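1st attempt posting a full record on here, be nice pls
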Amino acid sequence: MNDQKPEIPSPSELPIAQNTGVRIIWLSAGMTAVVLGIIGLFLPVLPTTPFLLLAAACFARSSPRFYHALLNHPVVGPPIRQWREDRTIPLKAKILAISLLVLTLGSTILFVIPVLAVKLLLTGIGGAVILFLLRIPTRESHRRSS
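the predicted structure (as tokens):
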């Protein structure tokens, strides 16, 4: 089995689209993904990290500047780089995500939504998101660089 971790490509290695129109489409998609990722910070059912990963992929095809700005951002960069390197998330992030999901979705189901069908739908969606989060490997808490 190959244990090598993918490296973050240099700007010259990025698969930048040659057509300006295609680059604009990739850039627009990346910006949209960043906006949705930011909204996801406040809405528990909208996942932040997948949108930021999508933004990184779009920026890799459109703008080395935005790609590296996203990966080097002090808040959103580390989780994106970690996902690229070893496909894991920190235990703290899992606990926080599941806790916020249960708190916000649970209170919405209990106190805001009057329709039983909608309550069941939200319960199913929340359960699916929790199962998804639990299936993602957890990063070792103290990983040392060699």
